Amino acid sequence: MILNERDSRHEQVLQVAQQMMTAARTAPKGKGVDIIEVAMVTESNIRILSDTMKQMYEDNGFKFFLRDADNILQAECVVLIGTRSLPQGLDCGHCGYEHCGDRKKGVPCSINSVDVGIAIGSACSVAADHRVDTRVMFSAGLAAQQLDWLDGCTQVYAIPVSASSKNPFFDRKPKTE
Fold first, then answer.
1. Closest by Cα among 26, 27, 128, 16 to 79
2. What Cα–Cα distance (Å) separates residue 119 from each residue in 71, 96, 113?
3. N or C: which end of the chain has fewer CB within 10 A?
4. What is the per-residue pLDDT across 58-108, written as a single tens digit (0 to 9) for each?
5. Cβ 80 vs Cβ 148: under 8 Å
6. For the CA atoms of the chain, what is the radius of gyration?
7. Under 8 Å CB-to-CB from 43, ≥6 apart: which residues?
């Protein structure tokens, strides 16, 4: 039997993405409280995510949303990592407020933000270990958050995943419309 790499690449990338999701889940969490949500987007849902990003460009005028919307269409899948909001009750002041109870609605608990960042780093390290291409995207994460694909998450980031001869997520040209 001869198995050409091109014939198995898609399945290999999906397997790596599943390992990325596991790494995000098992990443250390502040106070040991797990409020991270992780999912993988494939096929037609990538198109929905891209279309949502294009609509968000229409609403906000940020051209990088257009560029990123086209860019994720080159991904085999997109890993989503988000965090629900849960103040950790440390009154640490790291969020800018002296006490957790003083935070204004919409201001994230810094511990929650650190937790999602560590989960993203853990996921990306798995991708690097397997030599697949990724890029952390705020824009696609915000679109996934708008679609409410990670139920109840207030901070969502997206990681498109690809395996090609050149990383499609870097050296990108700005969109001019």
1. 16
2. 23, 23, 10
3. N
4. 999 999 999 999 999 999 999 999 999 988 889 999 999 999 999 998 899
5. no
6. 17
7. none
